[in-house]
Amino acid sequence: QSALTQPASVSGSPGQSITISCTGTSSDVGGYNYVSWYQQHPGKAPKLMIYDVSNRPSGVSNRFSGSKSGNTASLTISGLQAEDEADYYCSSYTSSSTMFGGGTKLTVL
Amino acid sequence: QVQLQESGPGLVKPSQTLSLTCTVSGGSISSGSYYWSWIRQPAGKGLEWIGRIYTSGSTNYNPSLKSRVTISVDTSKNQFSLKLSSVTAADTAVYYCAREQWLVRFDPWGQGTLVTVSS
Lengths: 109, 119
Prior knowledge:
Helix content of chain B: under 10%
Mean pLDDT of chain A: 96
Number of strands of chain B: 11
Radius of gyration of chain A: 13 Å
Shape of chain B: globular
Strand content of chain A: over 45%
Order of helices and strands of chain A: EEEEEEEEE
Oligomer: heterodimer
Low-confidence stretches of chain A: none
Radius of gyration of chain B: 13 Å
Shape of chain A: globular
Low-confidence stretches of chain B: none
Structural class of chain A: mainly beta
Number of helices of chain B: 0
């Protein structure tokens, strides 16, 4: 199974909004509403930011939002802050298995 | 608040079996409807899901690793374990354990443990 496709990098200035895409197939992203997003700072474990496509865990800023259209899921971060600079990974359920995206490095300019 | 901690050898020789344990604290591994998963990350690379186990003992594995992976659970010790056989340098990675609430909702994660495969 191939990894889900994410852009290698995105960037934005403080206060701006950015969107990270996660493209799969009808067998994974498009077939289930089980897509999650993780934030990972260097040397740290990933942190759950979005689950079930668009739900935020308690404690996660409402600047983070998720959506899905067809085989592509998206993570949007609004009001970009310096602390948002990190790697972001999407994940999707697929037929008793789980796939991760290749990761996107977010740079806050 | 549930916490997870990985433990095991940091160095494994090629062709041998990698063995790691994840200890769950702050709650019972048997309570609630959770899966318990292993995920790894080679240095500078992305995350790779290895597999999951339910407290009933049922398992799912990554198809690309299935022939070499065994995940088990010991509810009496509040632990679950990973065994990966016939390792090569490509298996060198930080290995994370995580609780999975229903599907692909991994939270929390352990801090991760680096396993190096080298002679």
